[in-house]
Specification:
The protein is mainly β. The chain contains no helices and eleven strands.
């Protein structure tokens, strides 16, 4: 799939970009999917705050057996322009970020139940969301580092 968007705005904002996504079976039991986008956003000739030019995700799901499934997901987010501080008069962009997540599922519990184990942010990168206020949150919103979780799905 491929897309193109142009969105003129009465407030002198300009948005345009390209996005593509794909799904492919590499071989029996292994599926690869992904998406990538490039966006250009500006208002009155200045970059729009809070937007990344580049976003990308890649994922692989491997069905090891009827009961076991494993997955890996990679996410890239490009540099994000942040609000200008009224105190310093400057803007400090958020650096680009990389995130790798892993999951394992076992459906051998019976009656449709599934046990799940996951690790988010495997590489323990410093991930941040942009704040709309450079005064209230000068360091922006920090996301947790590496996070390990366990879950169980039990149909009722």
């Amino acid at each position: 799939m491929f897309g193109w968007m142009v969105a003129p705005d009465p407030n002198d904002a300009t948005l345009y970009g390209v996005e593509g996504s794909w799904n492919h079976t590499l071989k029996d039991g292994i599926k690869w999917s992904g998406a990538a986008s490039w966006n250009h956003t500006e208002q009155s000739g200045q970059p729009l705050v809070g937007e990344a030019k580049w976003l990308m995700t890649q994922g692989v799901i491997w069905n090891l057996s009827e009961a076991w499934k494993m997955g890996a997901n990679y996410r890239y987010q490009g540099e994000i322009i942040t609000p200008t501080s009224p105190i310093t008069g400057t803007s400090t962009p958020l650096e680009s970020s990389h995130q790798l997540n892993l999951t394992a599922n076992w459906s051998g519990l019976g009656q449709g139940s599934t046990l799940q184990l996951g690790v988010e942010n495997v590489l323990d990168h410093d991930l941040r969301y942009p704040s709309t206020s450079s005064v209230a949150y000068p360091e922006h919103y920090s996301r947790p580092g590496r996070f390990i979780w366990v879950g169980i799905d039990i149909p009722l």
